[in-house]
Structures are given as structure tokens and as C-alpha cells.
Specification:
Length: 359
């Protein structure tokens, strides 16, 4: 069997604070590297050259154009060096399981599970180098291929991008700038649903909740790509709740999101929490009991990890406690306490409640 080879491909600027962590996480898996620096003034170039000096590679210094053009320039420079091209950002970190074997790679592309704060998403991050791949998008760019392709999940790898400590995240106006760029792009291409979705996301991140709500509604009305439509419908309910809008409107929005995709527990979780906070514990109990039968989704772009990991069960246990289903509450509390990554604040409440029931 021919040994499979991997070329690291990145664009960077002023990432001296984080670049060692990023490339250090994948250094032992790559055979070549092509990194384009777009104008660092903090010594990022020297760190890369020193850190990767024992692996063949190329550091190119090119002026910044925009994210799409700069990424495509870097991608072209990485072609024909290895079987596969691996893409990672400077503020990310890959964690490999012991079972990962690159010689088993055989698909045209692989998506990697990325954990960003409380959200799980999947992104194409490893591509076969001899196909016609291109980056598309002025913001939140994605890899697309002009050739027929087959892909799958890259098992045994998790990309941790939750720290958000790269250079671009030091700009307090980042999300406003992203929103302005997307709004301008939509003037030229008003039917671009992806731009509408990320405009809503950008406004949400900038805490411009009314604007975020407007564009999530617009994105939901456009239809098309199911994960974006679902997330838009779900976010409408979340934002209406944050904005303290009419309660019936909030309930209807969560129900609409669940009706659109009845495999997803997030709308039921938020609706149950909504009822629990208003002391309607019986309805909260019923909703969470059903939602707990739904398996965590896989291979999707946006998944609230905490919902499936512990939060649904926590609301269920508290609701059971409130309606005097004490055995069910105790059982659920004990299950929660056995979870190694249960947040400390929730662990404290669970232990306190269990102590009350054990008297």
C-alpha cells in the first residue's frame, strides 16, 4: 500500500501568540507544508520556519486581497505536493485519536468535527489535491469542487476552535465589519442565501438582535439548505425569547423549528426550559421526556452540544422533582453526576437537589 501524504495549507497574519499550538497539533501527521503570510509584523514568519524546519515546506509572503482570493492563492501553491491538503486556521487545534491512520484515507474529501464553544459543526478540512477545489465566499468561506466527489467524516479527529484567540478575534468591531461586508455583497447578489444566513449570524454575534432576527426570518423564507433553514427557525425563537417578545409567538417559533426538523432536540429543549421557568413543570417534563429519545445528530453543521450532553437531562430531572416524580429525579441526578464534563454550576445544583431527596 502506497503511503498517503498530507500537505498543510494555511494563510496567516500576526498569529505569533497561537501559531505554535495550531501547527504543533498536526505537525506529526504532515509530510509537507505551504503557508502564506499576508503581512505579519509580529514575527509569525520566523516562528513558522523554526517550528517546521525539520519538515519540507514553503513560506510565501503575499499581500492581502480578500479571504477568497488569498485562500485560493494558498491552495494553488499547495497543489501537487502531496495526496491530500489539510486546512487549519491559526487559532484551531486538532486532537487525534490513537486509531487515526492516514494510509487509510481514500475519499475525495473529509469533514472534521469542529467544536466551537458550545456548538458542534462539521467542515471540509481535508481534500484530495488533484481535484479542482476552490474556496468560495467573501466571509465564512467554504471549499467547493468542480469535479464529482465522494466524502465522509474523518473519524478520530476533533478540531478545537473554541478559544477564539487568533489575531482576527482581537478586533472588537470584527462582527460589525463582517456584517457590513455581507450586506454590501447582498446588494450585488440578493439571492445568495448563504450570505443572508451569515449576515444574521454576524448581527447576532454583534448583539444586534433585532437585525439578526430580521435576517434569520429572511433566510428561513428562502428555503434551500436544510441545516441553515433549521438553525434560522430555531434562532428566531431564541432571539424572540431574548427580546422578551410575546410568549405565544416564542412558543410557536420553537414549535415551527421542531416541525421543520423533528430529529432535532434543541427547540424542545428551549421550549421545555421556557415552560420550566414559568413553573409549568408538567409540560416541561413531558417535552424533555420525549426529547431525550432523540439521538444526537451527526454530520450536521450546527449542533448545540450541551443540549444532548447534559442540559436536556438536567431540565428533565428538575421537572420530575417538581412534579414529585422523585425516583425518576434521583435516577437522573445520579446519571448527571456521573458525567465527567458536567459544568460545575450544574453539578452543584444537582448534588444539592439529590441531597434534598435523600434525606
Amino acid at each position: 500500500m502506497k503511503n498517503k501524504t498530507i500537505c498543510l495549507n494555511m494563510i496567516v497574519k500576526n498569529e505569533s501568540a497561537v501559531i505554535r499550538r495550531s501547527i504543533g497539533s498536526i505537525k506529526h501527521k504532515i509530510d509537507y507544508w505551504v503557508i502564506v503570510d499576508t503581512g505579519s509584523s509580529d514575527g509569525t514568519q520566523q516562528i513558522i520556519q523554526e517550528f517546521l524546519k525539520d519538515i519540507p515546506g514553503e513560506l510565501h509572503e503575499r499581500p492581502w486581497v480578500n479571504i477568497e482570493k488569498s485562500r485560493n492563492e494558498a491552495l494553488e501553491l499547495a497543489r501537487n505536493h502531496c495526496d491530500y491538503i489539510l486546512v487549519i486556521d491559526a487559532d484551531e487545534e486538532w486532537v487525534f485519536s490513537k486509531d487515526f491512520q492516514k494510509n487509510k484515507l481514500n475519499k475525495d474529501f473529509y469533514v472534521v468535527l469542529s467544536r466551537d464553544q458550545n456548538i458542534d459543526l462539521h467542515r471540509i478540512s481535508l481534500i484530495r489535491s488533484n481535484l479542482r477545489w476552490k474556496w468560495k465566499g467573501i466571509i465564512h468561506e467554504e471549499l467547493q469542487c468542480d469535479d464529482p466527489t465522494s466524502g465522509g467524516l474523518l473519524e478520530g479527529i476533533t478540531n478545537h476552535g473554541w478559544k477564539r484567540d487568533g489575531h482576527q478575534n482581537t478586533d472588537p468591531k470584527r462582527y460589525y465589519k463582517d456584517a457590513a461586508a455581507l450586506a454590501k455583497a447582498l446588494e450585488e447578489d440578493p439571492s445568495n442565501a448563504r450570505y443572508v444566513f451569515f449576515l444574521a449570524q454576524s448581527y447576532g454575534a454583534a448583539q444586534e438582535l433585532d437585525l439578526a432576527l430580521r435576517y434569520y426570518k429572511k433566510r428561513a423564507e428562502m428555503g434551500g439548505y436544510q441545516p441553515e433553514v433549521f438553525w434560522s427557525l430555531f434562532s428566531i425563537g431564541c432571539l424572540q425569547e431574548d427580546l422578551k417578545m410575546d410568549e405565544q409567538m416564542i412558543i410557536q417559533s420553537y414549535c415551527k423549528a421542531f416541525e421543520y426538523d423533528s430529529t432535532r432536540a434543541e427547540p424542545l429543549h428551549h421550549l421545555a426550559s421556557f415552560y420550566h421557568q414559568r413553573n409549568n413543570h408538567a409540560l416541561s417534563f413531558i417535552l424533555t421526556k420525549f426529547a431525550l429519545t432523540l439521538p444526537p445528530p451527526s454530520g450536521l453543521h450546527y449542533v448545540l452540544r450541551a443540549v444532548y450532553d447534559h442540559s436536556l437531562l438536567f431540565i428533565y430531572a428538575c421537572s420530575a422533582h417538581c412534579i414529585q416524580q422523585f425516583d425518576e429525579a434521583k435516577k437522573s441526578y445520579r446519571t448527571l453526576l456521573a458525567k465527567p464534563h458536567l459544568p460545575d454550576q450544574i453539578r452543584h445544583v444537582v448534588q444539592h437537589n439529590l441531597n434534598l431527596l435523600s434525606r
